[in-house]
Each structure stands twice: as structure tokens, then as C-alpha cells.
């Protein structure tokens, strides 16, 4: 069962994932293109500062590729954008930590400086937040698409109409339930008292109606049985 059924393009979570991936992807592509226009050394360990970040040709190329991947994921749908954004966010965090270890060494192939490390860590956390938003938490609602997917329940859009009717009925009964609780605790308002009395009267009428219908049904059953018994006696008399 594919998650796409649970997270269609018009779902608000899908819009968040796609917008986040597209926005960050576009920013990375712009950063990479600016690096290319400055004719940077491809593997220079002393980069040029662009938009407050140090970069070289390799980092510019990686930025364009990662940005294109994010934009492609955003175009293909919310579920893919969510997963891609989260994975790239984790890679940004790892990149920040790894490049922190090689600052000012010959292994600094991406020409990182401290501001790049800070950016990678912050951007990684933001991407993880966007990619995992509404997806991993201990308090997700039951109608969350990922909760329904993990529990093998049908998508919310495919839930039978009966469930919608039950939810509407539950919402209608909520004020009455609150009124009954307030009356039981002794702090009900006059309106709540009237509501509870009216509901009690309605239930009493319904119970009387049910009792009358049950009595009428029993009477009809007795008459039918008596009629069948009389017909049987008549047939026996004719045979004699």
C-alpha cells in the first residue's frame, strides 16, 4: 500500500513538504551558480566568500546537484519530498560535523570555514524538521496520514460515509455531554440545565414509543398465532 494514497497533492502536509524542498533547493542552486560565475578553483581549500559562506568549485557543484534533487522531489509529490528533505537534512548535519574536523587542513576539500559549519548544522536541523513534520511524534492525531498508513487503515478520503456521519453526531452530542457533566458537578448554567431536561424528555418519549411499538408487535403476533390456530381447528373439523 503506497503512502501516496494517504498524502495527495492537495493535503496540507504535502504542501509543506513540497514548499520546503523547493525553497531550499532553489536557494542551493542559486548559491552554486554564483560560485560557478566566480571561476572558483574546483578543489581549492581556501574558498571565496559568497553570500556569507566560503565555497569552491566542488561545493558549488554539490550545491547545484542537491538543489536539483530537492526540486525534483518537490515536483514528484509530498511523500518523496518529505523523505528526501529529511535525508538531505541528516547529510547536512553529518557534513557539518565532518568538515568541522578537517577545518584548516589539506582535507578541507569543500573549502569550509566556521560559518559553513554553522550553516550546515542549522540547515540540517531545519530540513529534518520540515521533512519529519507531522510524521514522527508521540501525539499524532488518528486522522494523520502517516498514522493511518502505519496502522493499515484506509486513507481519510476513502473512509466510508458512515464514519463521517458518526463524527458529526459525536460533535453534536459534545455540548450535551458537557452539560451533563456540569449538572452532575453542580455548576451547570440555566441553558445547560434546560438542555439536559430536554434531552431527558426526548429519551423518555422515545422509550415510550419503543414500548408501544413492542407491545403492538406482540399483540399482532398473538393475533396471528390465534388465527393460525383457528384455521387449523377448522381444517380438522372438515376432515372429520
UniProtKB/TrEMBL annotation:
Residues 206-240 are annotated as: Disordered. The chain crosses the membrane at residues 16-37, 57-76, 83-102, 114-134. Keywords: Membrane, Transmembrane, Transmembrane helix. Pfam families: DUF4383 (PF14325). This is DUF4383 domain-containing protein. It comes from Actinopolyspora saharensis.
Amino acid at each position: 500500500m503506497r503512502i501516496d494514497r494517504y498524502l495527495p497533492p492537495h493535503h496540507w502536509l504535502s504542501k509543506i513538504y513540497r514548499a520546503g524542498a523547493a525553497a531550499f533547493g532553489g536557494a542551493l542552486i542559486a548559491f552554486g551558480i554564483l560560485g560557478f560565475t566566480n571561476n572558483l578553483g574546483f578543489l581549492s581549500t581556501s574558498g571565496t566568500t559568497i553570500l556569507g559562506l566560503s565555497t569552491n568549485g566542488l561545493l558549488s557543484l554539490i550545491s547545484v546537484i542537491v538543489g536539483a534533487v530537492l526540486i525534483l522531489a518537490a515536483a514528484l509529490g509530498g511523500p518523496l519530498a518529505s523523505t528526501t528533505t529529511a535525508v538531505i537534512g541528516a547529510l547536512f548535519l553529518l557534513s557539518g560535523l565532518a568538515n568541522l574536523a578537517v577545518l584548516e587542513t589539506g582535507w578541507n576539500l569543500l573549502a569550509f570555514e566556521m560559518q559553513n559549519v554553522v550553516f550546515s548544522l542549522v540547515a540540517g536541523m531545519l530540513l529534518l524538521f520540515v521533512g519529519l513534520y507531522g510524521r514522527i511524534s508521540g501525539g499524532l492525531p488518528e486522522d494523520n496520514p502517516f498514522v493511518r498508513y502505519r496502522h493499515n487503515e484506509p486513507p481519510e478520503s476513502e473512509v466510508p460515509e458512515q464514519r463521517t456521519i458518526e463524527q458529526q453526531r459525536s460533535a453534536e452530542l459534545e455540548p450535551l455531554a458537557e452539560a451533563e457533566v456540569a449538572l452532575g458537578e453542580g455548576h451547570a448554567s440555566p441553558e445547560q440545565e434546560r438542555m439536559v431536561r430536554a434531552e431527558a424528555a426526548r429519551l423518555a418519549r422515545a422509550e415510550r414509543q419503543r414500548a408501544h411499538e413492542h407491545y403492538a408487535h406482540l399483540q399482532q403476533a398473538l393475533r396471528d398465532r390465534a388465527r393460525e390456530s383457528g384455521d387449523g381447528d377448522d381444517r380438522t373439523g372438515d376432515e372429520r
